[in-house]
Amino acid sequence: MENYNPILLLTYDYEMYLGKSGSIEKCLLEPTDSLLTIFKKNGSSVTFFVDTTFLLMLKKNGNKNDFDCISNQLKRIIEDGHRIELHIHPHWIDAQYDQIKKEWTFPTYRYYKHENVPIEILENLFIEGAEILLKIGKSVDSNYQLIAFRAGGWCLEPFEKIRNFLIECDIKVDSSVLPGFINNHSIANYDYSNIFTSKPYYFDYSIYENKSKGSFLEIPISVTSVNFIQRFKRKIEIRSNPKMSKCIGDGKSIFETIKIRKNEILKNYLEKLRTHNDVVSLDGYINDNSFTNLNNENKLITAVGHPKSQTKQSLLITDKISRDQRFKCITIYDFFSHYNAKE
User: Does pTM top 0.85 for this prediction?
Assistant: First the structure.
């Protein structure tokens, strides 16, 4: 990728909160509309990874109005030149809907990782989830095809368990890897500590492979180095700007609703004292330093965000980044189709 500006892949996990869901208005519809307005103004194209297990639960539970509102927004996403791709959080199959509070809760997270889901159930989640997205996509573009997948909670391994499902869904790209990151949490755990590259690479049966050719292309999330002083400064800025740092979403994360083990709390605290990497994020109270720092070194920057986690500050920076002429802001589909072949 020598002859063009750095490519910027803005990717959003289109999902509800996973502790207490919150409302679709605040977690999906309102923040996504704000993002679409920004991207339309700036002529940018982005990728939304849609949590299809949530959509399946809406259909099963008879939440037709919510399903229709989301479907209409997903159609608008495609009409505006963006992409919807496959994202799966299996633990939704245990979710319960509170008719009075109009929100979903999760009595168990036994299926948070696909590793724990019975194979027949898991196959249905992939096939039926892909069918929902394709039906929506083809209503806008008769030639619409899915190409990419992102694992819920970044929990991609064991990859062999889902490999054939991805092939059946014609998925050729994954974007679940956080290079150098490890999470030992009892519910959501993964280990990418031995993956050191943020550059795309091919693999076949395991994400830890790195082949010149393979059935799947991995596009890792970009990372940037952050030290304790930078983290501390950010904390001060957040406390000083509560209106700019408040998330639009009205739900709660898993870690706000479950008891975290004391050793996990201590480990997380010690980890933050060290200089280490952070993902290039589009959420919360962010600045554009991570993008600027990567600009001179990386020809491909893959950033991750969530509509539910948008703030006034993140929308402000997203507007600035997506109209920055130094970057070419495209979808994962376009990267795979037009640029990856030139690698």
Answer: yes
